[in-house]
Amino acid sequence: MIRVTLVGEELDGFVSPSAGDHVKVFLPDESGESTVMRDYTPRKYDAEKRELTLDFVAHPGGPGAEWAMHAQAGDELEFGGPRGSLVIHNPNGRWLLIGDETALPSMMRRVEEASSDEHLQVLALISTEEDKLPVDTNANVRLSWLTRSQRPNAEQTRATDAGAVINALKANPPVPGTFVWLAGESDMVRQVRAFLLSELNWPKKCLRAAGYWKIGVAEGHEKFE
């Protein structure tokens, strides 16, 4: 991950009440002649300092990652939003967060903002042990870093493999009343969502799932109702 902190008077009045928020970042394409848009989670905002933190997954080829990997102090970044926020309330205070690297900014923000009376289970899908991130929270958190299968196939193909997540859910299913938040590569999300609904009989009202990206598609966002 690459962390970039934006500062400036233009950030005065910025509001992001939900860890599921996103801003639309405007970036040059590979030719540099036109603009592409990508969504990123407001990782943290300090209103007093007017500082907005964004985390980028470091991977070659993506316009956001390429910008972040070459960013220097003084560079400008244009963005808009968040246009709206969905703040989910669960009276039980129990949450299960599932996602891959693209969902880490949302999940880590949610964990860090959680109160001491909340209980969170986190299943974070990563490629290697070196991809683990530190987290500081007052909540009761059980954080599991799940490494993808290291079969000799393409890394992108492994990104769709939901096996590690499903096995973790079989071994330690969430307790009733837990709200499940799920995001990441679309095919992986679809498989995990199907397992939750069909195998664990999880109620749809306690589940929110979204595909943050899809292999082979530049703008691969997908919502699951």
TrEMBL record:
Name listed for the protein in its UniProt record: Siderophore-interacting protein
Protein family per UniProt: Belongs to the SIP oxidoreductase family.
CDD domains per UniProt: siderophore_interacting
Source domain of life: Bacteria
FAD-binding FR-type domain residues: 1-89
Biological source species: Thalassolituus maritimus
